[in-house]
Known about the structure:
seven-stranded antiparallel beta sheet, Alpha-D-Glucose-1,6-Bisphosphate, Chain A, domain 4, 7 strands, 40% strand, alpha+beta
Amino acid sequence: MEAIEVQAPLSTVYNQWTQFESFPEFMGGVDQIKQLDATHLHWVVNVHGQRREFDAEVTEQHPDERVAWKSTDGKTHAGVITFHRLDDNKTRVTAQIDWEPDGLVEKAGAALGVDDRQVKSDLARFKEFIEQRGAETGAWRGDVEAGS
């Protein structure tokens, strides 16, 4: 699990995170995310030079608290992002990303901690992205109950 403090209000930080299609602007290896509907996403990623595509579903979402998703097409990829108000203009974001490496190169990278460093780096770029903009690019504040 990785965490970072962002100099922006909780709702601004949360709102930006719900804009999945903006992830390629701050996430390394994510080439594209297409939001198919309120809870379904299509990801295109590049992992160690290998292009991968998979579908994912938002499995839980509570405004200003958390967003969780998991892959739906056999690849193991899931994430939970939580948001914590520290004060009016500071938010802590925690990220737990789980995925199953495929092939020797990915397994070696995972064993060396490359994945954890990538999440930490992505959070730092997200922080820079939202702090420099000063506002979110959009928002989706729907509520998705776990198991629904």
